[in-house]
Every structure is written in structure tokens, then in C-alpha cells.
Amino acid sequence: MARQADKLQPVPVWLGRLRMELRQLAMPVLMSSRRGLLSVSFEVPLTPLDAPPADAQVWQFWQRPESEHCLLGLGLAHRETASGSRRFHHLDAVWQGLRGGWTRISQGHARPRARAFLGFAFDPGFQPDDAWEGFENALIQIPRLLVEWHHGCCVISFNCHLDQAGKPEQLFSRWMDDLDLLLKHTETAEKSVSSCLIREQPSAGSWQRQVADAVNAAERGDLDKVVLSRSLKLRFNRPVEHRRLLSGLARRYPGCNILSVSFGGDVLLAATPERLLHTSAQRVHCDALAGTLPVDARNRDADMEAHEHAPVVSAIRNALDPLCKELSVDECPGRLNLNNLAHLYTAIRGELRPGIRAMQILDRLHPTPAVGGMPRKQALEWMGQDERWQRGWYTGGFGWLGDNNQADLSVLLRCARIHGNRASLYAGAGITRVSDPQRELRETEMKFEPMLRALTEC
Fold it and tell me: Transmembrane stretches, by residue range (predicted)?
């Protein structure tokens, strides 16, 4: 249902023309009996932002600096949630239904496109508590205003669900408020910052005892690997400036995906090195990222490669194999260097069988042994008994879905949850029969370090 409108005049008059043409293009659809989603898209000369607008309350932000690709969503046009063991099946059906009834109007060179943000918790049984207020177990969200920058081109889309849009004038007013918010650049003054540690969860000593118990279980053959995690809770002398924090992470870690999401309360942000799933048409790409070393380590750790990294590669291969006509796996892991630490890394690529969709792959992949363990059932049972705190979205995933079987989803690692002047940081380590509790504790400290440094400098 795509239409082509006349090309906008160049700046400085593009903003006025956009407001006028948005009304002209959207009003006939808003006044019709059509149902489902509506998007009106424009190509505009807007320079990329490195963080959501300062006054935004609800947003989704995804950026891969090295590929010059960024998506920013403001407000809410439509949301669908799910939980339980079939959460991805449900959201897949929702997504297919939304795409089938989506009216898309484009202006100029802007291609009509469907985009949605997808986020989910680690555990399909997760129920939001005070620590994760506002974060659903799993959701697909269509923003009211979507901006996408890719290789120097910017497309802005105004979205609504026609069954929920309300009166046209109210909708136009909300769209203009979102646009004004996007174009408003607010600089934050530099301020000194200090922090104090409120709580480790669990304490370093308790966590090392958990690691020792997991090592004993692996030696008995109860499990091969389990990923145990920790949290640090910090308090600062002023509200954390999450926009400055986000832009700083993008500068320091251009090879990572930079993510941020807020549902009106807490802010979750991450600089994650692990791409869980990237699909386009019939191609799929997954990262096997497991095994952490100091960045100055000269050689790979043979025990780590055999007991921690190789099982992740094997599990991803086994998950993808029934879905692919062809599958290629790097013969030997490489090293992904990230400032203070390095990870063993193996790229896995495949050509999908006809009809295989991104969400079907996600259902088979998550959780990989890199964030859960193996055998999966035994590792998750161990974690359920031993981890006495809610991971929430940590080690879950966040990213976006698009047309032509496009998806780009990242594992939520190296992340922080911000609430006013408080921050919660998360880190974990894979435990096998060759693990040493003191060394694993140090690994989590290395993983905390980038976000701690960024927080104290923001």
C-alpha cells in the first residue's frame, strides 16, 4: 500500500514542508475505514544523534557505530507483550499480523519500511518486580516517531495504530511534539560526580562459594557449564546523565552495539559486544562469544577454549543446522579485543531454508550457553536454585525487526540500569570444571570496569 509523494524542498524549508505534507498524506488514511498500522516516511537532512533527546520519557535507541547505523524511537504507537515458554511464537505471530495490515506511505526517496523494537528478559518466567518496574517479560513495540540513520541517509517515520489513534488533530499534535523533542538539542553542563557502593549481590565471598559449588557439580557430571552473575548497586551525588554516558560508550566501543531503552521510569543501557542474531532475507549470522581474557594475554587459554567457548559454538551450530541449507563456522576462534579485556570469538553464518523467520531462530537460540550453560535444562535449573536475584533483561536481548526477514538482536551484556542517582550494574562468568573461583571473580570485576569508568566520567 505504498504511495509516492512529491519531493521535499531542501533545507532550510524542509521542516515546514514536512509538517504540511505529513497532514496531506496522512489525513485521507486517518479519515478512512482502514485498520492496522499507518506509517508516513520522509527522507530528511538530519544529522545523527548519539543519544535520545534530553526530555524524552519513552524511547528505544539502537546504534552500531562501526556500520553507521542507528535507530531511535520516541513514544508509543503500538505494543504487544508476551511471557512464558511460547513468548517468541506469540510475538512472531503478532509481528506477521502487524506487517500484513500495515499501510505505509513514503515521500521522495524514502522507502516505505516496517520497523519494530524487540526486547526480552532472560527468563521466560520473569515477572517484573520493583527492580524492573515497567520492563515486560518480552515485547514488540512500534514507536510513534522512528528515525533511522544509515550510511549518511536519514528517514523519519510517523507511526500510529489506526484503531487506537484517536482524533486526527490530537495525533498530529503528538507527532509534532515528538518532532520538536527530536530537534531540540539540550546540552548538559559538566559536573563532578562521586559514587558509593550500596550493595554487591551476592557478596564476593558468597559468589565465590557459588562458583566452587558449580565447579563441584561439573566435576560430578551434573552439568558441563553454568553462567553465574553478579550485580553492583551504586549511588551518586546527582542524577546520572545517561545521555552523556551513552555517547561516551559509543566513542570507547565502536565495535559494540550501543543500546538504550526507557519506559518512563528506569533507563537500561548497554555497550554489548555480542550479536545474538542478524538476519536479512535468507542469510543468518550469529556470534559465539565466550571465554574472557585480559586484553594483554598473549595466547588463547586452551582450557577456556575447550570447556567454555567450544560448547557455545556447538550449541549455536546445532540450533541453526535444521533451519539452514548451508552453514559455515570459523575453524578456530579469533580474539575480540575491548579495551581492558578480550573474548574468544567465532562467527557462524548460514543460508536459511525457505520460510524460516528470525523469531523462529531466536526461539531455538536463546539462551545460548554463553549466558545460560549446558546442558541447557540442568544449567537453568541450577541457576534457578543458586541465583537468588532477578536478572530481568540482563542477558536477555534487545534490537529491531524489519521487512524482508530483517532482524538485528544483541545480548544485553555490559549493561546498567539507571534510576535517578542510582545505578545497577551486571556481570557474569561461565563456570566449568576447570574454573577457579578467584579468577572468575576477577573476570566479573573486569566486566564491571568499563561501565564503572564511564559512569564516573559522565
Answer: none
pLDDT for 190-212, tens place per residue?
555 677 888 899 999 999 999 99
CB-count burial class (<10 Å; 0-12, 13-18, 19+) for 349: middle
For 167, the grid coordinates are 482524533
Chain Cα centroid distance, residue 49: 18
Dig out the grid coordinates for 183 from the structure.
530537534
Using CA of residue 206, residue 208, residue 209, residue 213, what is the dihedral sign?
Answer: positive
For residue 119, which of 417, 370, 433, 334 has the smallest C-alpha distance? 417
Judged by DSSP in three states, 60 sits in strand
The percentage of the chain sitting over the pLDDT mark of 70, rounded to a whole number, equals 95
Helices 204-220 + 376-386 axis angle, to 10: 150
State residue 192's pLDDT score: 55
Residue with cell 565495535: 255
Q: How far is CA 252 from CA 62, 258, 339, in A?
A: 16, 11, 8
- Report how far residue 362's alpha carbon sits from residue 328's, in angstroms, rounded to the nearest whole number: 18
Structural domains of the chain sorted by starting position, each given as residue range(s) with its CATH number in brackets? 4-183 (no CATH), 196-241+275-457 (3.60.120.10)
Residue positions annotated with a catalytic role: 225, 274
Residues in Cβ contact with 289 at an 8 Å cutoff, skipping those fewer than 6 apart:
273, 274, 312, 336, 343, 344, 345, 370
- Distance CA(98)–CA(92), nearest Å, equals 10
